Amino acid sequence: MHGLSLIKLARWSVRERCLAAAGFVVFCVALLAAGRGLASGAMGEILRVRFGGDAERTRVVIDLDRTTRGQVIQAGSDGHVVLSLAGVSPPDRRSGDGHGLVRDFRVAGAGAASRIELDLATSAEIERRFLLPPGDGVAHYRYVIDLKATGRAPTRSTPRADARTARPAERPLVYIDAGHGGRDPGAQGADSRESAVTLAAALALKQELERSGRYRVRLTRDSDAYVDLYRRVAIARQAGADLFISLHADAGADPATRGASVYTLSEQGAGRAVREFTRGENWQRSLNLPGRDASVDRILLDMTQRATQNRSAQLARTLLGELEGADHPLLRRSHRDAGLAVLLAPDVPAVLLEMGFITNPEDERLLNDSRARRRLMRAVAEGIDRYFREPAGEVQMAGTPAGAN
Known about the structure:
Blueprint: H1 4-10, H2 14-39, E1 44-53, E2 57-64, E3 70-75, E4 80-86, E5 88-89, E6 95-97, E7 102-109, E8 113-120, E9 124-132, E10 141-149, E11 173-178, H3 194-212, E12 216-219, H4 229-238, E13 243-250, E14 260-265, H5 267-277, H6 283-286, H7 294-325, E15 330-338, E16 350-357, H8 361-368, H9 370-389, E17 394-396
Parallel strand pairs: 1-5, 9-17, 11-12, 11-13, 13-16, 14-15
Antiparallel strand pairs: 1-2, 2-10, 3-4, 4-8, 6-7, 7-8, 9-10, 14-16
């Protein structure tokens, strides 16, 4: 068990729940009003185009005075990224120099839309894109495009791309965290300890993922060793993990309670993560932020955190879908949120999977049966496959708790 005390600390007070609900209602009203303006044919305006990051990952931020819908026309494989933004007109300045992966950009009118053209300095792909509504001290909308270098040679020739230095794109790095270990055995079942159950599951999941040949896989521990909770997250971030999954076995006072669940980071936990992260030195550098303006970097950090939360929620949904399809028992409310330490990385999508209740006789039997464990981890691996196959997509950030379903 990951610690009931941590979950209690992450629960919202009544006042915080009321404030969150009120904020969500205000956002929905504003969004509907903006949507009506867009539907009526009134044109908004692109205020400016901004860049951040470096030659590995570059963030493009398009400031808007109203909401928009984006459509990808070219995705970057040919050295260009082209998008159409509906209902907004170009700014006075229609072109300029880029930054990082973007060599230069142009904005042109295209009927009732604007066409954003990004010329790339090297081959890259769209990692995610999303629309942020006004908030956090920012009075306008922001359409965000995150670009990631692929390491592949571009399909067109360009004097700025050196094919000799191009390297094959690395496979996604998945970090598997076996909960507890060493002096922290976790929850106790009738015949087993949580730390042993999670390690066996982590080794089985690693085998499943490596068998596909699509991933690089690492473990936070591969023996009965104690690893600090915050250290588990730190080593995944330092390694540049693309995904972090922490495996646990739940416990409860009622032995009849059984079923799996998935935790993602709560809104309260996300705020705490940002506060703690910005207390450290050189935090901008660790996120590849420009580092020239602390207020701008804080906004970019918040945007990164929200995008990470969204991707984590997407991973949770795919995992639960695969578990349900494999007839693995689930809790009635199987998607939950909390401010758990292993979920706090602002830039690594992360989930905590409670595989079942070790205090339930049938769940404990399944968790300790090697064949049942392989079936469970195969379903988890298929969920991870689906997560990486499905694009990040375009997401409307509503600021609701990840486990509110």
